[in-house]
């Protein structure tokens, strides 16, 4: 399954992190923006060109130390079809460099519509008998709150194409508890029930290291719930947002890991992308600043969880 490949890269690099590629023009060094505007003007085409150049620089600097990237689709969609093309180019370039790609789209629908999302982001599109990758990411974030009808269409693609999904379970935002912490008649919280569904859905796409191709999004801002869900969902790999700019620290994410140092991949977006602004270094050094932050983050996790080993 897809997460087997991600797990192997995490172990190879001894680094359980993913770099979020959620670019805004305000994050991009002026020299890149100026070059894009000189060629394309202050247009959506110019904005998209700047995104691609910026992302490629980050990917080049990170690909040998960070196993995965996570582009958030909305940051590309706001620049129209040109931005969506930039998303596709970013995914392809990261994969060329050997990185695992998680598209953060939080897609949510049922039946044929969810099949279309699965085909677009994880599968291949039939174009008059020719099979073509539309986006071709390795994994996709999804909203499971429509129940099994919204997840089942993805499982076939995951099994056939060696892909994975991350289902929203306990998200990192402050108001997540308004719904996700509510108690059901069974006594379980909503997020606990969703975690249990992930375990069940994942039975159809189990991997060789004890984790299925159905992962869960569980935020670093709720370390107690991370630990709770690690115990209750032992076969579910976690994507953990909320580290860094949202307030989560290295100590907060430790409960997400199992005895082998596996079980979670921790996301940092602004912390890595904007490291050059935080450091106040030369704008041409933005990619190396991102690399320095990624190394700092990696070393912080290593100090807390130790060596990462393949499970049974």
Automatic annotation (TrEMBL):
Enzyme category, top tier: lyase
Family matches, as Gene3D superfamilies: Aldolase class I
UniProt xrefs under CDD domains: OMP_decarboxylase_like (cd04725)
Enzyme Commission designation: 4.1.1.23
Keywords: Decarboxylase, Lyase, Pyrimidine biosynthesis
Superkingdom of the organism of origin: Bacteria
Catalytic activity as recorded in UniProt: orotidine 5'-phosphate + H(+) = UMP + CO2
Protein name from the UniProt record: Orotidine 5'-phosphate decarboxylase
Active site residues of this protein: 106 (proton donor)
PANTHER family linked to this entry: OROTIDINE 5'-PHOSPHATE DECARBOXYLASE (PTHR43375:SF1)
UniProt keyword Transmembrane helix, yes or no: no
SMART domains in UniProt: OMPdecase
Family from the record: Belongs to the OMP decarboxylase family. Type 2 subfamily.
Pathway: Pyrimidine metabolism; UMP biosynthesis via de novo pathway; UMP from orotate: step 2/2
Cross-referenced Pfam families: OMPdecase
MF GO annotations: orotidine-5'-phosphate decarboxylase activity
Organism: Anaeromassilibacillus senegalensis
Gene that encodes it: pyrF
């Amino acid at each position: 399954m897809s997460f087997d490949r991600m797990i192997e890269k995490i172990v190879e690099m001894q680094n359980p992190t993913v770099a979020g590629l959620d670019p805004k023009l305000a994050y991009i060094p002026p020299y890149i923006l100026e070059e894009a505007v000189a060629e394309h003007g202050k247009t959506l085409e110019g904005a998209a060109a700047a995104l691609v150049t910026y992302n490629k620089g980050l990917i080049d600097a990170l690909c040998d130390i960070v196993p995965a990237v996570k582009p958030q689709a909305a940051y590309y969609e706001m620049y129209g079809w040109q931005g969506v093309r930039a998303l596709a180019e970013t995914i392809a370039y990261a994969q060329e460099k050997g990185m695992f790609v998680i598209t953060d789209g939080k897609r949510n629908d049922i039946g044929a519509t969810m099949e279309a999302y699965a085909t677009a982001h994880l599968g291949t599109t039939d174009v008059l008998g020719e099979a073509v990758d539309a986006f071709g990411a390795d994994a996709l974030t999804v909203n499971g709150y429509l129940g099994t009808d919204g997840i089942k269409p993805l499982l076939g693609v995951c099994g056939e194409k060696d892909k994975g999904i991350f289902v929203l379970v306990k998200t990192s935002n402050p108001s997540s508890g308004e719904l996700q912490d509510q108690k059901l008649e069974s006594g379980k919280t909503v997020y606990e029930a969703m975690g249990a569904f992930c375990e069940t859905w994942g039975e159809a796409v189990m991997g060789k290291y004890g984790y299925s191709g159905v992962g869960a999004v569980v935020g670093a801002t709720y370390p107690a719930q991370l630990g709770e869900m690690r115990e209750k969902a032992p076969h579910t790999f976690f994507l953990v947002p909320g580290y860094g700019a949202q307030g989560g620290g290295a100590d907060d994410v430790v409960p997400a890991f199992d005895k082998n140092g596996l079980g979670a991949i921790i996301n940092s977006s602004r912390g890595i992308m904007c490291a050059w602004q935080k450091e106040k270094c030369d704008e041409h050094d933005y990619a190396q600043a991102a690399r320095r932050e990624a190394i700092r983050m990696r070393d912080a996790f290593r100090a807390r969880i130790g060596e990462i080993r393949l499970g049974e």
